[in-house]
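INFO  loader      accepted 1 record
INFO  loader      residues=151
INFO  predictor   begin
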Amino acid sequence: MEIAGEEIYYLIERMAEEHEERNPGWYTAIAILSDRYPNDSSRTYCISERMRCLTKLVGDSRMKGWTIAEDGCTFTHAAIFHAMAKCPLRANMKRVWFDPDEFFSIALQATEAEGRAERESESLLRATRITTGNVSVTSSELLVDVKSPGL
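INFO  predictor   done
INFO  writer      dumping C-alpha cells
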C-alpha cells in the first residue's frame, strides 16, 4: 500500500496535539488514524506498522545524521518521515521491518532533494517551533521525538 508523507505528518501533528492533554500512546495513534480513515483499516494498520518499524531504527548510528538530542528528546528530520512513508516494508512469518540500508538511502535522497530546492529558491525557512512535551513540530521541517510512549 502506498503511503504519502502527508499521512505520516498528519499523525505526528495530531499526536503532538494530544500530548498537550494526555500522554498519547499506540491506542491514541490508532484512534487518530481510525478517525481519519474510518473505512480503511488497512491504511490505519499500514501507517501504524511504519511508525513501529521506525522505532526499531532509532538505535542505528546512521540516524544521528537526521536527529538532534535536546532537553531529553530526540528530534527527527522530515526526511526520515518521508523515508518512513516511501520505504518498502519487509516481512517474514515473525516480523515486519524496514531494510536499514534502503531506508537511509531514501532519507538521504530526500535530504539532498530538499537541499537543492532550498539553494535554488534561496528562500528563508521559518523556524517557528511548537513544543509539547516529547513532540516538537516546526514550520520548516517536521521534527518529532520518536521515543514518544507507545510508538
